[in-house]
């Protein structure tokens, strides 16, 4: 029997590193294919998928600044990195026959569509995956903030942050095997306990607009689909 998904529309945040594979740098085409497969499963059961992609596998403004570059120039490079990741992701999705739009916060005529809220909604309603790239279009922000912003704009049911660990822990589970996972947290707990789920700008945006946020392990095969079908994965952050 067909099970209907628990969410109608989601905003999935993939970090740049999620595209990088083993080396942690660049773009691994095999990883793109795996991601496409998982995203395709969601589209297949009727979930509308918005995607925000990071750029940390290529450039990060803060890291470039440490190396001596001007911060704003570095952030511009970071945002351009997210466009490159977006182009690669769209390519992989379309090769898997998943209709996809790539919209950039920074106009780049001839390469990507410029982000437009109404058009994005229309594409999502039509069942197309919409990838939002170039972050918020502004320096000093992150793609986590962009994810929460777009999630709120498109009235997503939830913002899903894909990570390498199975949710939020009270300590680093890699170095401390005793670390405990939280099933559920409030926005204020995340902020007060400095849990580093996302940066403060992103968390506050979600809090101010009551946007639930779930952190889960994307490396766990089928986790995303399981979540859509009502399963429990990772940690939920809400009011
Ligand atoms: N960035 C920015 N404004 C934004 C989003 C991103 O300036 O609205 C820049 C910033 O330099 C950031 C880089 O783009 O370091 C890549 O984004 P992010 O670090 O969020 O990527 P992720 O860690 O998710 O791979």
Automatic annotation (TrEMBL):
Subcellular location: Cytoplasm
Stored InterPro entries: AceGlu_kinase-like_sf, Asp/Glu/Uridylate_kinase, Uridylate_kinase, Uridylate_kinase_bac
GO annotation terms (biological process): 'de novo' CTP biosynthetic process; UDP biosynthetic process
Residues the entry annotates as binding UMP: 55, 75, 136-143
Catalysed reactions listed for this entry: UMP + ATP = UDP + ADP
MF terms (GO), sorted A to Z: ATP binding; UMP kinase activity
Pfam families: AA_kinase
Signal peptide limits: none
Class of this enzyme: transferase
Residues the entry annotates as binding ATP: 13-16, 56, 60, 163, 169, 172
Main subcellular localisation: cytoplasm
Region (Involved in allosteric activation by GTP): 21-26
Coiled-coil stretches noted in the UniProt entry, renumbered to this chain: none
GO cellular component, as recorded: cytosol
Pathway(s): Pyrimidine metabolism; CTP biosynthesis via de novo pathway; UDP from UMP (UMPK route): step 1/1
Keywords: Allosteric enzyme, ATP-binding, Cytoplasm, Kinase, Nucleotide-binding, Pyrimidine biosynthesis, Transferase
EC number annotated for this UniProt entry: 2.7.4.22
Activity regulation (UniProt): Allosterically activated by GTP. Inhibited by UTP.
Source organism superkingdom: Bacteria
Residue stretches making up the Aspartate/glutamate/uridylate kinase domain: 8-217
The protein's role, per its UniProt record: Catalyzes the reversible phosphorylation of UMP to UDP.
Subunit text: Homohexamer.
Record-linked NCBIfam families: pyrH_bact
Family affiliation: Belongs to the UMP kinase family.
Name of the protein described by the UniProt record: Uridylate kinase
